[in-house]
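Whiteboard transcription, Tuesday session. T.W. wrote the C-alpha cells on the left side:
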C-alpha cells in the first residue's frame, strides 16, 4: 500500500515509519494515519490479522501493543511507533507452537479460522494480565470477539486448559 507522490493538493503525504513487529524492525512508507491493519497486511504481508468489520467491533484484527490488545483496523500506524507489536505470527509457529495455540488445537477451537488469530491475541493479553483467570474472567476477557462459527465454548475451554483450570 504505497502512495505515489502527487501534485494533487488533496493527496495524503507519506513518510518513512519504523515499526517493531514480532521482534523485527520494519520501515514502511505510509501516511501516519494509515490503519495499522493495512500496513501489517499490505506492506508487511502478514495474514494473521484480518479485516472483519473495520469498526473495532469484531476482534479479527487484534494485535498486541506492548502486551495489551488493540484493534489494528482503527489504530493509526503513528500510534504504534516506538512500541512492540505482536501479531499471531509472533506468538509461535507450526514448531514450536505456543501453549495457547496447542490448547486451541487440543480443544478443536479453530473452525473456519477467521476469528482465531484475534481470539489467540485476546487470550494471550488476558493470560498476560491474569495467568489464572476464572471462567467468568475468561468470558469477560473475550467479550468483543465474535466467532461466526459459535466456537465460544471450545475457545473458553482452551484458555482454561492453559490457565490450569482444565486438564
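and on the right, the sequence the group agreed on:
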Amino acid at each position: 500500500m504505497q502512495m505515489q507522490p502527487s501534485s494533487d493538493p488533496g493527496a495524503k503525504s507519506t513518510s518513512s515509519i519504523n515499526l517493531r513487529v514480532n521482534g523485527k524492525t520494519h520501515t514502511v512508507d505510509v501516511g501516519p494515519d494509515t490503519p495499522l491493519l493495512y500496513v501489517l497486511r499490505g506492506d508487511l504481508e502478514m495474514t494473521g490479522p484480518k479485516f472483519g468489520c473495520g469498526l473495532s467491533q469484531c476482534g479479527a484484527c487484534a494485535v498486541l501493543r506492548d502486551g495489551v490488545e488493540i484493534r489494528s483496523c482503527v489504530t493509526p500506524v503513528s500510534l504504534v511507533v516506538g512500541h512492540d507489536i505482536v501479531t499471531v505470527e509472533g506468538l509461535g509457529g507450526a514448531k514450536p507452537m505456543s501453549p495457547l495455540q496447542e490448547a486451541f488445537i487440543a480443544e478443536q477451537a479453530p473452525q473456519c479460522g477467521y476469528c482465531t488469530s484475534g481470539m489467540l491475541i485476546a487470550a494471550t493479553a488476558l493470560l498476560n494480565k491474569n495467568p489464572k483467570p476464572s471462567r467468568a474472567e475468561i468470558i469477560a476477557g473475550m467479550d468483543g470477539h465474535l466467532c461466526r462459527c459459535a466456537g465460544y465454548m471450545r475457545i473458553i475451554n482452551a484458555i482454561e486448559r492453559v490457565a490450569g483450570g482444565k486438564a
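Someone added at the bottom: The two ends are 45 Å apart (CA to CA).
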